[in-house]
Amino acid sequence: MSIFTDEQKIQLLSDLVAIQSVNDHEERVATYLQKLFADYGVEAKLIPVAANRANLVAEIGQAGPVLGLSGHMDVVSPGEVSQWSSDPFTLTEHADKLIGRGAVDMKAGLAAMVIAMIELHAAGQPKQGRIRLMATVAEEVGELGSQVFYEQGYMDDVSALLIGEPSGYNLFSSHKGSMDIKLTSRGQAAHSSMPELGANAIDPLLALLYQANRDFRQTDRHNDFLGDLTFNTTVFNGGNQVNSIPETATAEINVRTIPEFDNDQVTTALQRLVDRANGQGAQVEMAVYMSQNPVQEPKDSPLSDLAARIGAPFAGGVIPKLALPAVTDASNLLKDKGHQFPFVVFGPGNESAHQVDEFVDRQMFLDFSTLYQSLFVAYLEDKRIYR
Ligand SMILES: [Zn+2]
Predict the structure, then answer these.
(1) Catalytic pick among 27, 74, 305, 367
(2) Which of 46, 105, 108, 213 has its CA 20 to 30 A from that of 195?
């Protein structure tokens, strides 16, 4: 059923882009959507996560299996606004592109899911099963919103999950995990003419990182689909004067993990290296300050097969099933779900996320708001999920 005209759909996206939810203030997006849902008889609830930050959950349908939908309400900073060809928070149409911060990552996906739910509900759909939208805060930094959905049990009865991140006409069911780790080495300052009075904080940290590079890069643990774990020191600081023995040195490391060498195993292996260095006189402390799990679900599932089939006419060809480079809220939402869970990332998209003049293709946005409706109902009516 058509409730919204194309212009109204684009206005909705425009309204969402105008709300400057730059790593904060998602509550305003959630409140806007709650009111919109209410206008069409769909109940939605805000779940406070932090000051000015609230998740939104909305449901339509009947008893039966639950199809989970998720999208984040935060956006990244527009950066240098003067480099944009138009105001980043005013959705601007140019050559069939809708330009604005968050246009593609991922307010278009979010709006398309909301439109699909409202139109389905108005048509008395789905006739079996439920559709639950879980709109999150803080996906871009920390993934706090999806953590709260997981902890509060919103995923417990979900039997398949679609995240509307900007895949375009590609399907992703797997991605690596990501970890940020800080190592702090402490020594003893001394004049560099008398180093024996001090302890150089840089030396043991360098040795440790050298060993870690070898251990994490020359491993026999591989993943054919996702590729190998990557381990990179991305920030290094130490010392403050050329003729002083450095008292502290720090290193920050980003690790991209795979199920065969996961976050817990990385923590254990690196802690062992730290302990060994400390046993030889170093004073190094390790802090894992960000940890998102790898996700690997089957490429082929009832959900991904239907998405490929229903999306193909819109895509104008076969929709490939690939591994996603980036991390998503699935790291939290799919904790406990094992490796046979139907999951796809599928939303209006292209490569312009996080860039100046970020845009979504106008027609692709509109098409997703339609094809989502066919996909959601087809999934909930698919015999395979009732076995
Ligand atoms: Zn995103």
Answers:
(1) 74
(2) 213
Residue ranges in 193-301 assigned as alpha helix (H) = 202-217, 263-279
Structure tokens at 102: 């968050």
The one-letter amino acid code at 162 reads: L
Radius of gyration of the chain (CA): 24
Q: Over pLDDT 70: what percentage of the chain?
A: 99
* Preceding omega of 204 cis (within 30 degrees of 0): no
User: pLDDT tens for residues 266-316?
Assistant: 999 999 999 999 999 999 999 999 999 999 999 999 999 999 999 999 999
Closest CA to 145 of 158, 163, 127: 163
**What residues does CATH 3.40.630.10 cover in the chain?**
6-175+294-386
Give CATH 3.30.70.360 domain extents, the chain: 177-292
Separation of 72 CA from ligand 1 center, angstroms? 7
Q: How far is the CA of 272 from the centre of ligand 1 (A)?
A: 34
The whole-angstrom distance between residue 364's C-alpha and the CA centroid of its chain comes to: 21
**Of 26, 139, 165, 361, which residue is the catalytic one?**
139
- Peptide bond between residue 106 and the one before it cis (omega within 30 degrees of 0): yes
CA angle 201, 205, 209 (to 5 degrees): 170
Beta bridge partner(s), residue 39? none
Residue 139 falls in the annotated catalytic set = yes
In this prediction, residue 1 has a pLDDT band, given cuts at 50, 70 and 90, of low
Vertex 163, ends 157 and 165: CA angle to 5°? 165
The single-letter DSSP state of residue 320 is: P
Rounded Cα–Cα distance for residues 146 and 161 (Å): 13
| Segment 3-17, tens digit of pLDDT | 999 999 999 999 999
Which helix (DSSP H) or strand (DSSP E) does residue 321 occupy?
Answer: strand 321-324
Ranges of H-type helices in 46-190: 108-122, 144-151
- Look at residue 271 and give its three-state secondary structure: helix
6-175+294-386 CATH fold: Aminopeptidase (3.40.630)
Identify residue 270 by its one-letter amino acid code. Answer: L
Q: Let me know if 80 is a catalytic residue.
A: no
Cα(208) to centroid(ligand 1), Å? 34
In the CATH hierarchy, which top-level class contains the domain 177-292? alpha beta
